[in-house]
Design brief:
Layout (H helix, E strand, L loop, with lengths): L10 H6 L8 H11 L4 E5 L6 E4 H15 L8 E5 L4 H12 L3 E5 L5 H11 L3 E4 L2 H9 L9 E4 L8 E2 H5 L22 E5 L7 E5 L1 H16 L6 E3 L7 H14 L2 E4 L5 H10 L4 E4 L1 H12 L10 E4 L6 H4 L8 E8 L2 E6 L10 H4 L1 E2 L4 E4 L2 E2 L6 E6 L6 E4 L5 E3 L8 E9 L5 E6 L4 E2 L5 E2 L1 H8 L5 E9 L7 E8 L7 H9 L11 E4 L13 H10 L1
Parallel strand pairs: 1-11, 3-4, 3-5, 5-6, 6-7, 10-11, 10-12, 12-13, 13-14, 27-28
Antiparallel strand pairs: 1-2, 8-9, 9-20, 14-15, 15-16, 17-18, 17-19, 19-22, 20-21, 22-23, 24-25, 26-27
């Protein structure tokens, strides 16, 4: 599936304007190594421990992994890794680029059905996991994954599985400052992430070093400006778009260290922020709400925190009203898997504006509503075009191309609806798409879950829609028309999905029984009406 990217017609202008370049993140790593090899770049607080890594340490781990991977992987082939927030996820990203392989990171929370689908659709030839269960799953579905030649684990590799550190890592082939003829190019596909996009089915999103650089340079550069000694923490894992920007790329590009945690519990996050003198915390609005409640219950806010950046959803007014519990500048960053760094607020915005919903476009990104430019008028779908936008989207089911920058003159439909507030700032209003956001802003592929639920013997018709169990929370609900009057309960539906290997956070948390599904004039199920009905009940 991973092939030649389609570059936008404006690629030359992106280079002329400095958003794109003829360099990659490997060049950034080499620059950091030559300038300050002893500078701390990571603090790994996973598994209850603490491990510091310098630039030189990261380079050494990258080179050893690259040397080992090259024995199993050829340039252009995909390498998948399902890892938590540990330093190995970061070193693997750079190691893949070093040998010209395509990185395919996935969250460990995916169920076996979704893991198998993504491995099959990308044609991954090697997969790295840390969970014994996931490793076993890869063995169980080996016949369904003919391209997967090599299985690797980082902890207690079972029989038939290589140990990443013992069996794969090897002595480097060349000096760390010596470019490899096989390493990734600035316009090659370097990263594949998955999203449900605007239609509810899983899709592969293709990024190059240039689209990633434009995102991290614009968004993270803005968030870090004015901080003389930044230390960044995000619970978002290093296999997710936000984690890749904040914990993988930005520490090398912007010269700060990143703190990795594998536990997003509010008390733990607050404690680590205080212990590690974190200055910038990047968290979702729901996680932020939990932090504020924990401080309200008596926890001490971290004194080092200067900025809290929120992404994934607009900030509810009820949460904003208690934001003074943690005395830090509040900023919004807006983006999605297809456009990882799309917008950010300034930190000193007028409270009368809508800065808290979508921020402001980063340099180089054009953001418009259908009826005009950013701030142009009534409610309309939001489209973006710029150097941060991915170079292709592929359906993970049939391999068909869903979108490239050659479509629509490079304009990408975000699935958001927005309008301009009185000051001209674009304000998020609603979603035009059917997407439901799960933990850390990860999107649930509703169509895939609906297809599985439709096979339940007591389900006549079903749709999955978002509802709000809390002021800042979002969760999936199954709205069911029963088959022959047999009403399934929530336990029956979730058990049915688990038996089919469905990812845990895809499971509905509520079931609503209806006699019929409301439809719009075009005959499509009116999910917006269902969402409103659920939020009222």
């Amino acid at each position: 599936m991973v092939g030649t990217p389609v570059l936008p017609a404006r690629a030359a202008s992106y280079r002329d304007e400095g958003h794109w370049r003829d360099r990659t993140h490997l060049d950034d790593l080499r620059d950091a190594f030559s300038q300050a090899p002893d500078r701390r770049v990571l603090v790994d607080r996973s598994q209850g421990g603490r491990r510091e890594m310098s630039v030189a340490d990261l380079v050494d781990r990258t080179e050893r992994l690259a040397a080992g991977l090259s024995r199993f992987v050829s340039p252009g082939e995909p390498v998948a890794y399902l890892l938590p927030n540990r330093w190995e996820a970061i070193a693997l990203f750079y190691a893949c680029a070093r040998i010209g392989a395509v990185a395919v990171p996935m969250p460990t929370s995916l169920g076996p059905t979704q893991v198998t689908q993504r491995l099959r659709s990308t044609g991954a030839v090697l997969a790295v996991t840390n969970e014994a269960g996931t490793t076993s799953v890869l063995a169980d579905v080996a016949d369904d994954l003919p391209a997967l030649r090599t299985r690797v684990a980082i902890d207690a590799a079972p029989e038939g599985v290589l140990d990443l550190h013992r069996d794969v890592a090897a002595e480097p082939h060349r000096a760390p400052d010596e470019p490899s003829p096989d390493e990734i190019g600035s316009d090659d596909v370097a990263l594949v992430l998955f999203t449900s996009g605007t239609t509810g089915t899983s899709k592969a999103v293709l990024h190059t070093p240039n689209t990633l650089h434009a995102s991290v340079r614009g968004q993270m550069g803005s968030l870090l400006s004015g901080d003389d000694a930044p230390r960044v923490l995000t619970p978002s894992v290093a296999t997710h778009a936000i984690g890749i920007m904040a914990s993988v790329l930005s520490p090398v590009v912007h010269g700060h260290d990143a703190v990795l945690v594998d536990d997003d519990n509010a008390s733990h996050v607050l404690a680590v922020c205080a212990e590690e003198d974190v200055t910038l915390l990047m968290v979702g609005p729901s996680g932020y709400d939990g932090l504020l409640d924990r401080v309200g219950d008596g926890a001490t806010p971290p004194p080092s925190l200067r900025t809290i950046a929120l992404g994934g959803a607009p900030l509810a007014d009820a949460v904003r009203r208690k934001s003074d519990r943690i005395p830090a500048v509040l900023r919004i960053h807006w983006g999605m898997t297809e456009v990882p760094g799309g917008g950010v607020s300034g930190g000193d915005d007028d409270e009368a504006t809508s800065w808290h919903t979508m921020g402001h476009p980063v340099p180089g990104l054009e953001r418009v509503a259908d009826d005009g430019a950013d701030g142009g008028g009534g409610i309309a779908p939001v489209h973006v075009r710029g150097p941060q936008v991915c170079v292709g989207i592929v359906d993970s089911g049939d391999g068909s191309t869903v979108w490239t920058p050659a479509d629509d003159d490079g304009w990408f439909a975000t699935g958001d609806l927005a309008s301009a507030d009185p000051t001209g700032v674009l304000a998020f209003v609603d979603r035009a798409s059917d997407e439901i956001k799960g933990p850390s802003g990860m999107i649930i592929p509703t169509a895939e879950v609906e297809e599985l639920l439709a096979a339940h013997p007591d389900v006549g018709q079903v749709v999955l829609v978002a509802y709000r169990p809390g002021v800042q929370a979002e969760a999936p609900a199954a709205v069911v028309v029963p088959q022959d009057g047999r009403e399934p309960d929530l336990d029956s539906l979730t058990r049915f999905l688990r038996e089919r290997g469905t990812t845990e956070w895809y499971l509905p948390q509520r079931v609503e029984i209806v006699q019929s599904l409301p439809r719009n004039p075009q005959g499509k199920v009116d999910k917006k009406a269902l969402r409103a009905q659920l939020d009222k009940s």
